[in-house]
User: What shape does this take?
Amino acid sequence: MRRKKVLFISAGIFPIPANKGGAVEELIDTFTENNAKEDRYEISVASCVFKGREIKAKTKGVKYYYFRTPFYLSLADKMYYLYVDRIEKDWRSMFRQYCFRNRHYIKKITETLDLKTYDAVIVENNMSLLEKLSEVMGEEFERKCMYHMHSNLVDNEEMIPYLARCRKILAVSDYVKDHLYQTVPQLRNTEIVKVTNGIRGWTYSTEERQSLREQMRDRYHVGEEETIYLFAGRVSPEKGVLEMTRAFRAVLPRLRHKSRLFIVGSASSGSDKESYYYRAVKKEAAQSPESIILTGYINHEDVAKYHVMADAQIVPSIMDDPAPLTVLEGMSMGNFLLLSKAGGIPEYSANYSNKIFFERGDSFEKNIRDAFLSYDQDKAPHRYENSANHFGEERYYRELAEAVDVS
Assistant: This one.
């Protein structure tokens, strides 16, 4: 019996394997690596090219197809991005910076690959690719194409008819699934299936964790008695980073324990490119340089070191974050969490006890200040939950495989 053929079409922004990071790209790697153990599907992956030092190797048995963007299109995208970011100051600028690349990317995929030979085609979080796929695949589009929805935003209404024609939409949380059904009438007859995100657990013995904690704190000249708060993720408006930074600066004089805030991340995965928003956060942090540290982009493999160094992790999302992997990473490490009560965050952390929620709305900054003060008041040394990784990679592989269902 032949194995079924599955094609993953990555968003085309970051490469596969995820040598430049990216949550969605990490999830594709997770699936291909687990499939290599199970040998369930014959997998192909379409990706943009990668230049630089390889951190992650290709998965054995996977066919990778790489598509290069011509220089002139990259230049056109850069100019368009500068206009949207600097002139329009649109918070979606980081998401609108690859419109010319997207058109070239999907055109080359459809010209190079015989899409009708695959049993399933999974498009990862870039709905602008669907129109061309629908045109090329014809009736096969409705039988084989699935869209993996990592966001609750349908930010391109022209794509809704193509979303509605997909065989399935794979949603990362019940929140996203319910939101789509409630807000997009055209999708009410489309099957939407929840596929829970999963991560590779970072496993350290007690001795390894303590040693790494000491190393990281020595590196940044942080005393063991100090409280370290961690934000890890994309530094962009919807993540609430500026409000968090202002709130932390405001409560610094009132905290009982000497405290520092580490902001681990950049404006975009895979680079230290600075947006107008990142510069605003940087300016705010510069007013308390000893207490607020911006690390810039950190390779995903090294982010665990910052989790180990931290006492508490904060996720101050303003948007209805569908299922941020940073929450799963914090839980897998047993860190105390300060969480925005938004989107799929309560759903994913429902069974985790070491947490404080804060509301959004007009008093958002005040609510973050109160969360900092509450944790500071009750903090106990090394207050880690003995937590198993309930959102492991095997679970993710199993749920996605069942949702694809091409057997």
